[in-house]
Amino acid sequence: MPVCQQKAEIVRTEKLSTDIYRFTLQAPDMASVASPGQFIMVRAGEGLDPLLRRPFSIHQVTGDGSVRILIKVIGKGTQALAGLQTGERMDVLGPMGRGFTYSSDQSPHFLVGGGIGIAPLLFLAERLLKKNGPDAIKVLLGARNADEIAILVEDFASMGLEVLVTTEDGSLGNKGLVTDILSDLQDESAARVYACGPHPMLKAVVSLCRGRNWDCQVSLETLMACGLAACLGCAVLRADMNGYVHACKDGPVFNADNVAWL
Amino acid sequence: MALKQPDMRTALGSLQLANPVMTASGTFGYGEEYGSLVDLHRLGAIIVKGISLLPRQGNPPPRIAETACGMLNAIGLENVGLENFLAEKLPYLQGIRAHLIVNILGDTVEDYGELATRLDGVEKVAAVEVNISCPNVKQGGVAFGTDPDMAYEVTKEVRQQFSRPVIVKLSPNVTDIGEIASAVESAGAAAVSLINTVLGMAIDIQSCRPKLANVFGGLSGPAIKPIALRMVWQVAESVSIPVIGIGGITTTEDAIEFLLAGASAIQVGTANFINPQAAEEIIRGIEKYLTEYSLDSVQDLIGRARHF
Question: What is the ipTM of this complex?
């Protein structure tokens, strides 16, 4: 899969919450080859500080050749990116990495997202929906509060999918953690789980899936300098504890059984 | 009158480069990683990730941390090992017109000798770059690079086993880099390359722990360029073999500074992560600069700032 570099025009900016922004980039070469779970590396400005590109999951691709990403402001790099306006350009590299494996089958499909980790699941939901009807798919979303998540919940719901929501403060959906509602889905046999979110959430999801023999894929976030498997900075301990895989090339989506959960 | 293209050729001992711009070891994988983004044929040389006799797993994560205008890394020399390199990585590189330089590393003088012997039999390998300067592993690496006698021994062993040019990559984490450079010159090095990363660290003030699992790591990127430039200047004074400038080179202007300081060639490192096309842009930039200043050859730049 060829990776390309381009200065993509921002065709739409949306502020989804206090600190989450959605950017729509005109990038037809990337949009045409991207698959759910892949990511792009974005340069945070023209200067040398911040120096490194930031990785963002592909949130959505559209038929007219655009790629969407969600940016949550957490540091100076994301702060600089969040300030960009429609008509300006983002220097992007991608698409990169191995995404989710999905197919048309009879299993229930559970998409489990926490916080900004919801980003790649919208793209996955769209593609899964084409292969399986809406009845086979459940979307489980968790966040700190309604502000963080309300618009994203609408996006999934408008696709005709069942969306189960939890917030830590109870301001939307159930009060609690997304793993609580996953845990409540007792009767499903041979479910397929696709998860992305903070590490403690993923660890809990993986543990639940193991107890029920559910197939589980996780999208991992690591520090990363190049995204091209050149710097080898994004090492993830292998399940056999003997050496490392790399989030940029072997992931960012892994079968949960292939990496260590310490 | 037709404009004459400036002569970009430069030499590292008997190795003739089409231009002075190479990609630094550890920042360009085994070349193929950049194949869809860079015209690899255009590069002066590709220097691949450091190879040891046996594969190495590298250090536990976190392995990298961003700093002001730079980054720290403690990868720990993760590499596929010599056999896998020859079987899986070399065939792709054999299809690339640019010269291939293999960075080698070992725990003992004998390891370096064995690597040199094996690579001497591989025609595509135009030169070896002896890594005696990695700050992130306990054995070998920098242990050889901080002691002039050991640096001499390793270089001599590689020189005896390898019939083409031997480049030695030097550490900045020493009191007198000129002394190490002189030692490897007298052992038969065809060129020296410098600098490897500068030892540093960063601490996370939320967890109150070092950011790198290895605690210390090597600082690279634009932040270290003035240090690197000063050391290239000093080493160009100490030795008469070619000097290869490395350290934070991100733009054409950076590269030209190193040439003016006395470097016969340069390596682009961390910049490859941010802008994969950096090396190509620098090649075009140097050509443009030579044309603008009506200089016939890149050789006219080398060391020019020394005669001010």
Answer: 0.94
Cβ <8 Å between B37 and A4? yes
Question: Which residues, at least 6 apart from B159, have a Cβ–Cβ distance to it below 8 Å?
Answer: B166, B187, B188, B189
Question: By the CB < 8 Å criterion, does A5 face chain B?
Answer: yes
Interface check for B69 against chain A (CB to CB < 8 A): the answer is yes
Phi, psi of B273 (to 5 degrees): -70, -35
| Spatial distance between the Cα atoms of A77 and A186, rounded to a whole number of angstroms | 42
In this complex, the residue of A5, A224, A237 whose CB is nearest that of residue B276 is A5
Closest Cα partner for B33 from A232, A74, A260?
A: A232
- Cα of first residue to Cα of last residue in chain B, in angstroms, is 32
What's the average model confidence in pLDDT over A176-196? 90
Exposure of A225 in the CB half-sphere (CA atoms within 13 A): 32
| Candidate list B130, B132, B134, B263, residue with the active-site label | B134
B39 touches chain A (CB under 8 A): no
- Residue-wise pLDDT tens digits, A81-104: 999 999 999 999 999 999 999 988
Is residue B138 scored above 70 in pLDDT?
no
**Token pair of B24, please?**
């630094």
Q: Cα B184 vs. chain centroid, distance in angstroms? A: 16
- Torsion angle of the four alpha carbons B267, B272, B276, B282, in this order, in degrees rounded to the nearest 10: -30
**Distance (Å) from the alpha carbon of A52 to chain B's nearest alpha carbon:** 6
Pairing mode, strands B217-220 and B70-73: antiparallel
**Choosing among A4, A78, A226, which should be mutated to test the B contact, i.e. which has the most B CBs within 10 A?**
A226
CA distance B280 to A124: 37
Q: What is the pLDDT of residues B44-65, one digit of tens each?
A: 999 999 999 999 999 999 999 9
Answer yes or no: B69 catalytic. Answer: no
Measured distance CA(B252)–CA(B256) in Å, rounded: 6
